[in-house]
Design a protein that fits this description.
3 copies of one chain form a homotrimer.
Chain A (H helix, E strand, L loop, with lengths): L3 H4 L2 H20 E3 L11 H24 L7 H30 L5 E3 L1 H21 L5 H25 L8 H20 L14 H23 L7 H26 L6 H6 L3 H5 L9 H31 L7 H25 L20 H30 L49
Parallel strand pairs in A: 1-2
Family (chains A, B, C): Belongs to the ammonium transporter (TC 2.A.49) family. Rh subfamily.
GO molecular function (chains A, B, C): ammonium channel activity
Pfam families (chains A, B, C): Ammonium_transp
Chain lengths: 453, 453, 453
């Protein structure tokens, strides 16, 4: 029943080795934080951050997971691989983040606390953004390798920009969104540019899958204020929530009217599923700064414009001219709006320098803040460095993958990796009257293990 | 590609003008609250209300949005237009609420804080209840106009009843639920009474859409205690959660047994999707008062009874005799149980007057409380005024819409407003063996833009 | 229209009697807690436990409810009966828990507070686990009877193990998960062992129902730290979250690689929907103890192994040899991993006894802790007693049901209890080209009540 080739498959071996290594690292190097003072009625890190931990976790697993279920035959993989790769990345990112944190401070055991998990989830968001670019085209084995290398580059990038340069990026417009998107785009350019167009038959959505996908969008939207404000300082945190909320409402309105213009008088579900969120990305860097309500609305409008224009106009052109097949369009949701967010940070810090009396909010991600007058230049440098590391990292990882692994044989199709129900692929959504003798359907492997449960 | 007629469509122009006006108002009149004292480890408004803000946001966008996806061909519009109109209303309701707040106190800049956003969400709930009455029959352009006028009447009603009369209505049985429902019913009476019955072919549900819809119900149910208690005072807030929870459990049990009786020994999904929530509505006014656990259970039973009887018995009669086509039956979920809740407030304050020693909980929505002995009369007056303003507002808005706009041409059908997948409308749910030559399907416009993502 | 036989059906009568009895008990015996001190800006039980109350409620209604929607024709019942039976159990479990609490302390009125509701939800989780074992085979009437008796045994078991023996089980590996699972298995052994195999045609899943079901899994996963930590003491609560989170990530990785091995090189959705959660169960007893991060990871790996092996290897064998038809496989998700969790508690307390200086975390469910050296023996005794009471209770309840009630006539099929849409059962998922004259479809009762809403 169990065959040796399945035990010694690279996926299984790599996962087992990974988990053993994690248990060694966690067993020898990672401790609990023990800040609690006996007698207190509340554990402060629970009271201050557990709510945000769980909100961000919802965004990761429900938000990203279900947003990617829009593909008609790739729902198991979209939600299932998100689940798998997120858990793997949570464990690994806590280690890579801890490593560079200790490089900055001092070596010795690392004490994890709830904010460490939140930072692990931010890192996982970057991996899932990258996953969006390659969705449907890679194998679970490749995803493990991507997550492994991406986290090293990710934590390095934070070390350079946040720890050393002391750039501001509380919600991660640059270090999470732009990083994950450009890593993914350069990765997919190397990895899948030769993908045959026939695969595209399965790369669309159906009515039900679109409604599932919108569930993902809405959960991301709802908790985006928590994402941007989770680790903001008290006093600035309130602004992070408020600005993010206002920016998101503006990007929704912008998306609807631009979609109506660009899609010939109708709304396109792809725009609504994606560009509505661009306001959260575009206000990420400046969320906790004193940008005023009107500044937040402006970020949302700018993000929504860039994103909808990207999806409607530039997506086909970029695919054609640059050979970049970005399955979920992450460059238009996370990449370009992330750059908008980074530039908003340059502008906001420039204005703040000129009006120092209101510059109350100079608090970055880790509260390491460089109070000099050159913050705008630092922000610009951080944006450039982030794009550089992301693109280099994506190309590097792409070449590694290309050397040692094989892409999915049957793109955008669950049946390669999952036991699927008998009716799979025979739904009338694809073909109202499938001919049972049609050879297209022959190579499916219907599961017969479904009756057991 | 982009045609001028799509740029200059009334929907686009109105949305753009709206957003520009919002940016001017927010830029000149709205500020952040700055209560935070440096050195504190927590921002009090974050600690006390952010959790409730996000719970109520889930109710609005997931709860109302997915509850309305029960229509078989209207899922994009139900969830998508909820998303759009909610964001528009969030921005606008903050302004109308702020205006009447400043009328009551003093003019000058208005400082928003997290409770302002929660109040904006309460206002949005009223608009979505109204949306439920006209679901499937109106255009997005009309929805903007509805939201615009409804918010003016809504904030005026709060000004009269809460600020001036000092009525109690912590969870908004009257000012949110009954208001939204009766506004919607009078609006739909004016607007859509001539709707042809042929449209009804699409006004039913299918198996999958009903399960989506139940997701909405359950999320509404789960966070209803947060809705009723979000802005309750410390000390009373605990009671608001407890009473709402108990009332909701009682309305679920009541709904199941009444449905079983009235539907011929089976359960009807329409009842379960809706009347189970009536306990949350019916306890809204009295949630934070000292009504005792048994009082809370009684509200739930009363709400469930009124709601299930309304759906099963009165819905067809009201449609026939009054010409009111209430798509989601909001009068039975929000309208009548809202009146029950208002009357419960009269009774509870009357009993409290007679037993002053336990009357610890005289805290209303805004903590402006009139401690005199005439609170029961005030509650009754507030209920009457609310119904009056709601019905007048709905009729007024209906006539405005009738003069200047056109209803949806293809009711209960996404294809009028959305690019839909090719298989749309061909699902076997409607017709197991659709005849491809059937003229019914000719006027669909299958999207060809779906392959791009 | 309304027939007497529907009014006097046993389901209706029992539900009405239940609710009347509840109103009498709540009206005479249950009061609000009144700990709040006027002047405080926060109600402590709101600040400390309301978040966890709502997270656990999500797990109960969305998590368990949607996890059970995997059956292709049983979605209404899975989500709907979960909703019904949960609300009934919430009310009743608060009473049974209160009764045994007063037996332990002193009689007199019982003051409910938010933790009482959380404990009511824990109890409901046990009922829903039991429901998973009998899913699709019983009637709503039988569910009421199951919940009634199970709660008495459940609270008795807590009284013996937690109040009297002072066993530790903060997340309920033993008293919730193993209890509910073994109660359910012994119940289903008595009740449904003769179930004809023909019913199995409907006991499988379809593609869309599996994706719905995975929504349930992910919500359970997300909030499991809240489940295990909700009532942990400050200082230990942080560890409960952390350990549960780490254990869950490890069980996800374990599930994926074991599934890949055991299912012939593919992943099986049944494993992913279930065994990924085994880490939460397996760390339940020890979650707030000082087990270190590596101990948490080990619990997750052990839970994932036991669970996937159970689903893949033992499920068919147990069904065949023992005649136990465990619809959802709750013994493999809750039963065996619950035993693993209980044994982990024995080991952890043994190690702690040998290293007393780090034994900071001796805090149990109710903070009644027995500080002697015999804690490991107590833990083992509690595991045995729990299994004994659960198995006896399940057999007892099974015989009661067998004497007085009838099982579902049409297993795994919504049409017996619900008005179903016309297309129900005609979906191509079951049969691509259903023959309309096929007698199989004749006995459906398509609803004609759907047009009304």
């Amino acid at each position: 029943m169990v065959e040796l080739k399945h035990i010694f498959s690279p996926f299984v071996i790599l996962t087992i080795v990974f988990e053993i290594v994690m248990m060694i690292i966690y067993g020898t190097w990672i401790e609990y934080d023990t800040e609690y003072t006996p007698g207190e009625t509340e554990d402060p890190q629970v009271a201050n951050t557990y709510k945000f931990y769980s909100d961000v976790a919802v965004m990761i697993l429900i938000g990203f997971g279900y947003l990617m279920t829009f593909l008609k035959k790739y729902g198991y993989s979209a939600a299932g691989f998100t689940f798998f790769i997120s858990c793997l990345t949570f464990q690994w990112a806590i280690v890579t983040n801890a490593f560079f944190h200790q490089v900055y401070t001092s070596f010795g055991k690392f004490a994890i606390e709830i904010p460490s998990i939140v930072e692990g989830m931010y890192a996982t968001a970057a991996v899932l953004i990258t996953f969006g670019a390659i969705l449907g085209k890679t194998t679970p084995l490749q995803l493990i390798i991507v997550a492994f290398f991406e986290m090293i580059f990710y934590s390095l990038n934070i070390y350079v920009n946040i720890y050393q340069l002391k750039a501001i990026d509380v919600g991660g417009s640059m270090i999470i969104h732009a990083f994950g998107a450009f890593f993914g785009i350069s990765l997919t350019r190397v990895l899948t540019s030769k993908l045959q167009t026939k695969s595209h038959n399965d790369s669309g959505s159906v009515y039900t899958s679109d409604i599932f996908s919108l569930i993902g969008t809405i959960w991301l939207w709802l908790y985006w204020p928590s994402f941007n404000g989770a680790l903001a300082m008290p006093g600035a945190q309130f602004r992070a929530f408020m600005n993010t909320f206002l920016s998101l409402t503006a990007s929704v309105l912008t998306t609807f009217f631009v979609s109506h213009i660009l899609r010939g008088g109708k709304f396109d579900m792809v725009d609504i599923q994606n560009a509505t969120l661009a306001g959260g990305v575009a206000v990420g860097t400046t969320a906790d700064l004193f940008i005023y309500p009107v500044g937040a609305l402006s970020c949302g409008v700018a993000g929504g414009l860039v994103s909808t224009l990207g999806f409607a106009y530039f997506a086909p052109k970029i695919e054609k001219f640059f050979g970049v097949q970005d399955t979920c369009g992450v460059q238009f949701l996370h990449g370009w709006p992330g750059i908008v967010g980074g530039l908003a940070g340059v502008i906001a810090t420039k204005i703040a320098n000129e009006h120092p009396s209101r510059y109350l909010a100079e608090r970055s991600f880790h509260a390491f803040f460089h109070r000099g007058g050159d913050q705008p230049e630092i922000q610009l440098a951080a944006l450039g460095i982030t794009l550089g590391i992301a693109i280099f990292g994506g190309l590097f990882t792409g070449f590694i993958l290309k050397l040692g692994t094989q892409n999915a044989l049957n793109p955008f199709n669950d049946s390669e990796f999952w036991e699927v129900p008998q009716e799979f692929g025979k739904e009338p959504q694809q073909d109202s009257f499938p001919d049972p003798s049609d050879s297209k359907w022959v190579d499916y492997n219907p599961s017969d293990g479904e009756q057991m449960i």
